[in-house]
Design goal:
- With about 150 residues, the chain is α/β, with parallel strands linked by helices.
- The chain has five helices and five strands.
- Bound molecules: 1,3,4-trihydroxy-5-OXO-cyclohexanecarboxylic acid.
C-alpha cells in the first residue's frame, strides 16, 4: 500500500521559515524522513507540496482513487494555513473517504486563536501536532497500524 503525504502552502519554505516555530529542517529533509519511515513499514510513498488549494484538492482525489482500489494506507495532510480556512479540502476528504491524519509541525493550540480551529479535524481519523517534523514519521508509524 501507499502513503500519501501532502503539504500545503508555505511548507516549501521549511528550514528558513520562522525556524523558532518550525525548526531548521527543510522539506527535502522531511521527505527523506518519510521515505525512511515508509521503508521501515514496507509502504510506498507519494510526497508532494503545493501552494495552491485546488491542486491539493486534485491530489486528495488522486489519493481517493487509490483508496477505492484498496491501495491507500492513509493520507497524511499538513494543509498549512488552509487548515483554518478551507471547506474545499474538508469536502475533498469527506467526498473521497480517505483515512486522514491531520498533521501540524507546531502545536497550533498554543499559538494564535485563529489557528485553534481546523476545518479538517471533523473528517480526520487522527490529528497530530507539536512534534516538529518528527511528527511526519510518527504519523506514518500510526498509518502503518491501520
Ligand atoms: C502548520 C500550522 C498552520 O497554522 C500554519 O498556517 C502552517 C503550518 C504547522 O505545520 O504547524 O502553515 O500547519
Amino acid at each position: 500500500k501507499t502513503v500519501f503525504v501532502l503539504n500545503g502552502p508555505n511548507l516549501n519554505l521549511l528550514g528558513t521559515r520562522e525556524p523558532q516555530i518550525y525548526g531548521a529542517h527543510t522539506l527535502a529533509d522531511v521527505e527523506a524522513l518519510c521515505h525512511q519511515a515508509c521503508e521501515r513499514h514496507g509502504l510506498g510513498l507519494v510526497f508532494r507540496q503545493s501552494n495552491h488549494e485546488g491542486e491539493l484538492v486534485d491530489w486528495i482525489h488522486e489519493a481517493g482513487r487509490l483508496h477505492g482500489q484498496g491501495a491507500l494506507a492513509g493520507l497524511v495532510l499538513n494543509a498549512g494555513a488552509y487548515t483554518h480556512t478551507s471547506v474545499a479540502l474538508l469536502d475533498a476528504v469527506k467526498g473521497t473517504g480517505v483515512p486522514l491524519v491531520e498533521l501540524h509541525i507546531s502545536n497550533v493550540h498554543a499559538r494564535e486563536s485563529f489557528r485553534h480551529h481546523s476545518y479538517l479535524s471533523a473528517a480526520a481519523r487522527a490529528v497530530l501536532c507539536g512534534f516538529g517534523v518528527q511528527g511526519y514519521a510518527l504519523a506514518i508509524d500510526g498509518v502503518a497500524q491501520w
